[in-house]
Amino acid sequence: MRNMKKLVMILVGAVVLLTGCSAEFNRVYKSTDNDFKYEYAKQLFATRKFTQSIALLEEVVQMKKGSEEGEECLFLLGMAQYNNGDYESAAATFRKYHQSYPHGIFAEQASFYVGQSLYESTPEPRLDQSPTIAAINAYQQFLDYYPDSKRRALAQERLFELQDKLVVKELLSAQLYYNLGGYFGNCTNGGSNYEACIITAQNALKAYPYSRLREQFSVLIMKSKFELAENSAEEKRLDRYRDAEDECYGFLNEYPESEEAKRANNYIKKCKKVIKE
Question: How far apart are CA 60 and CA 277, in angstroms?
Fold first, then answer.
């Protein structure tokens, strides 16, 4: 019973405290004193009450424009949005800051946080990667503007990570085409899924020649060329088997220790047998 009373007292105290804080915030929010609002917003930011801080900063940021506190207010708004998880708004605010104050005291940080905000909102590889491309462009712009920044290493690390996401997207697309195989339902303009797999994988290798997934793309190309030969019309059969054989030799030359080496050698035997017939 005593513990229950103690718990009730704690809960009542918390409610009173929160009510008091809410009342104080409302009083400040309704105030016409922008300097007071701004100072209170900074206090809220310091205590990680970002939602309330944003509400006040959005109220005063236009009023502070052109003043000594204008750029600090705009940058602080961006940081509050970023810390609150509103990355889309944060990216827009940081971009606005950098455009408004290209030589401001927070210009380098703002440029970096445009990329950082977009980075935090990038989707998983199976989804549309437009946000990922936007984040890559933002980080690249930061590196162009501030090549000697102490944040350079982190920006480059993020760039490689985001590029990997694009590569994975291409690998998933190529793998899907291969898995569809002989299904012609989506081949509205002729061709085949195996050809689509080959083109997708080859384009990825050209775009990302040093990717850690290079071997996986090469495997898909090799397998697709062999399957394409196996399922070819008579007039294309020999040329495609020769092409598949060449692809296998090229694969073994580049990846002699690959787990797929056995498959490549088996393909070569089958190709040679058909070509000699």
Answer: 83
3-state class (DSSP) for residue 256: coil
Residues in the chain: 277
- pLDDT one-digit tens code per residue, 210-254: 999 999 999 999 999 999 999 999 999 999 999 999 999 999 999
Q: Token pair for residue 20?
A: 């008091």
| Side-chain half-sphere exposure of 194, counting CA atoms within 13 A | 16
**Cβ atoms of 72 and 106 closer than 8 Å:** yes
pLDDT tens for each residue of 132-149: 999 999 999 999 999 999
For residue 263, give Cα distances in angstroms to 150, 212, 219, 266, 268.
48, 21, 10, 5, 9
pLDDT of residue 38: 92
pLDDT of 1 over the 60 cut: no
State the DSSP string of 20-85.
HHHHHHHHHHT-S-HHHHHHHHHHHHHTT-HHHHHHHHHHHHHHHTTSTTHHHHHHHHHHHHHHTT
98-123 b/e (C-beta count within 10 Å ≥ 16 → b): beebeebebbbbbbbbbbbbbbbbbe
pLDDT above 70: residue 87: yes
Nearest to 80 by CA among 104, 118, 107, 46: 46
User: What's this model's pTM, rounded to 2 decimal places?
Assistant: 0.80
The average pLDDT across 26-51 equals: 88
Residue partners of 119: CB distance under 8 A and separation at least 6: 135, 139, 158, 162
Q: Do 52 and 44 contact (CB within 8 A), yes or no? A: yes
